[in-house]
Amino acid sequence: MSSPTPSPPPHFLALPRPDALAGPPQGVPDTTTVAAHDFDIDARTGFMPPQPPLSRLPEQWEAWERILDEAIERHLKLGTAQDLTPVDEATSDAWRRRVRELPILSTTDLKTSEVTLRRAHLALAWIMHFYINTLSPTSPLVIPRSISIPFLEVSDYLALPPILTYSDDVLYNWKYREDAVSEGQVPLPTANNIAIQTSFTSTPSENHFYLVPAYMELRGATALSLMSRIMDEAFVRDGIALRRISYYLVHLARVIDDLRTILMTMRDGCDPEVFYHEVRPWFKGQDSMHGGRKWVFEGVGEEGYEHLKHPTEDELHGPSAGQSALIHAIDIFLGVGSAASSSASSSGKTGMNFLAQMQNYMPRHHRAFLRHLSFNPRQLRALVDAETTENRNPELLSAYNTAVTALRTFRDWHLGIVAMYIVSPSRRAGIGNRLAATEHLSVEEAESSGEKGTGGTNAMTFLKGVRDKTASTVLKKN
Ligand code: HEM
Fold it and tell me: For ligand 1, atom 8, which residue shows the shortest CA distance?
C-alpha cells in the first residue's frame, strides 16, 4: 500500500518571517523581506522596510563589524583634510593596516538571508569608503583583498555595485530611537521614532542628512498607494473612474508638496559647512578622485578568484539621493521623459542617462518595480492626453498638470538646496585651493570645469535639465 501523500505545506506567503540571523529552514523560501515576490514595497512604509534593518552581522563576520566600529570610534579623518595632523595620519594608517590584515571571510553563508546580505553590503561599503577616503590625495587607491573579495561577492549576490549606495546610507541604515520603543512592541518606523545606525563623522548634521530622505521615503508610501489606485481606475476608465483619477492626482500633488516641505527641513539640522567640508567628501566615488586615480580591487584576475569581475566606471559613482526609487517612480508614473524612457541599460554619464544609470544602484526588487511601472500598458500621461481632447475632462487635465507642477516645484526647491549645500560653501571656501579642486568650485565654475556631484554628474547643468524636462511634461491643450 502506498503511503499517504503528505498534505501540502501552507503557502509560503502565509509563513511567519524567518529569523533574520538564522535564515529560513532548508527548502523554505526566504521571506525576510516584506514582499520579495512583490517588489519589496510595503503599503505603509513604501521603499523603506517596515522593520528595522539588521544592525550587526552574525558572529562569523564580527571582524567586519569590529573594524567598522573602530573607524567610527576613532573619528578617522579625511586624507584631504586641511587640519590633518601626523597623529591623525598615524591613526588612519594603523586602522588601514588592520583592515589589510583581516582574514578573507567566506560569504557563502550570508546568502541564506536577504537582510543579512544587505547588512554585509552596508558594512563592507562603509569600510571601503573609510579606507579610500583616509588615504592621502596622491596614494594609489588599492582596496585590500580582505575587503574587495567579499564585497565583490556580496554585491554580485545582491546585483548591486560594490560601492556605498543610497540604500546603505538611508533605506537600510536606521534603527528605533531608544526612547521611542517600549518593550515587546515593534512599531512602524515614523519620523518620530527612528535614528541613524552608521555615519562617518557622528555629527548631528550627517545624521540629519540621512534622516530627511528617510522621512521622505515614509511619506512617499502614500504616493505609491495613490499610484496603485489610479492604475486600477485607469483599467476601468469610465466617467466615474476618470473623476476618481482626478481626485487621486490632486492628492498626489499634495503628497509631492509634502516631500518638498520635508526636503526643506534639511536646513533644520544639517549645517551646510559641515556637510560640504566634513560629510560629503566621504561619499566620493572613483570619478571624484583627486588626479583621476582609479580604484583597484585586489584579488580580481587572480587564481582562485576567476569569478570576480572588476567593476566598470559606471559602477563606481558615489551615493546620491538620485538613487531614491521614490522620485523615479513618480517620474515614470507621471511620464516625465527623464525616467519614463529609462531602461537602466543606457550608459553615459550625463543628463537623463545618469538617472537611468542610478537605477542600477537601487535594490533589485525596487529596480524591478520601476521596470514594471514603465512597462505598464496604461500609461497615465497618454490616458490624460486622450481623455482631454476637444476640451473634455478639464478637471482631469488640471489635476494631472497640478501633480506635474508639484514635481517641478520640488525640483526647483531641490536646486535651492544644492545651492545652499554645495555652491555657497564652495564659494566661501574660495577656489584658490587646488588641493581639493573637485570639491571647491562654485556651480557656475563647475559647469565650465566639469565639477561633479557625488554621483559623478556635472551637477547643476544636469539638475536644471531634469527640472526643465519635468516642466515640459505639463500637458498643454488649445
Ligand atoms: C543637502 C542635501 C542635498 C544635496 C546637496 C543634494 C545634491 C544633489 C546633487 C549634486 C545631485 C546631482 C546628482 C549627483 O551627482 O549626485 C542630486 C540629485 C538628486 N537628488 Fe539631491 N541633494 C540633497 C538632498 C536630496 C534629498 C533629501 C532628496 C530626496 C530623496 C534628493 C533627491 C535627488 C534626486 C531625485 C536627484 C536626481 C535628479 C532629479 O531627479 O532631479 N536630494 N542631488
Answer: 418
ipTM rounded to 2 decimals: 0.98
208 is in an annotated binding site: no
Q: Would the CA dihedral through 412, 418, 421, 424 be positive or negative?
A: negative
Ligand 1 midpoint to CA 213 (Å) = 10
pTM of the full structure: 0.88
CATH number for the domain harbouring residue 259: 1.20.58.480
Q: Whose CA is nearest to atom 12 of ligand 1?
A: 459
- Phi, psi (5° rounding) for residue 196? -95, 140
Query: What is the tally of structural domains in the chain?
Result: 1
What would the pLDDT profile of 59-117 be if each residue is shown by its tens digit? 999 999 999 999 999 999 999 998 999 999 999 999 999 999 999 999 999 998 999 99
pLDDT band at 257, cuts 50/70/90?
very high
Cβ-proximal residues to 111 (8 Å cutoff; 6+ apart), any chain:
117, 157
Q: Which residues line ligand 1 (CB under 6 A)?
A: 212-213, 216, 263, 266, 275, 320-322, 324, 327, 411, 414, 417-418, 421-422, 453-457, 459, 462-463, 466
**Cell numbers describing residue 348:** 553615459
| 414 CA distance to ligand 1 middle (Å) | 7
Ligand 1 centroid – CA 437 distance (Å): 21
In a domain, 6, yes or no: no
Report residue 378 CA to chain centroid gap: 28
Judge whether 8 lies within some domain: no
141 by DSSP, 3-state: which? strand
* Structural domain span for residue 218: 59-471
What tens digit of pLDDT does each residue of 211-236 get? 999 999 999 999 999 999 999 999 99
- Between CA 459 and CA 453 the distance in angstroms is 5
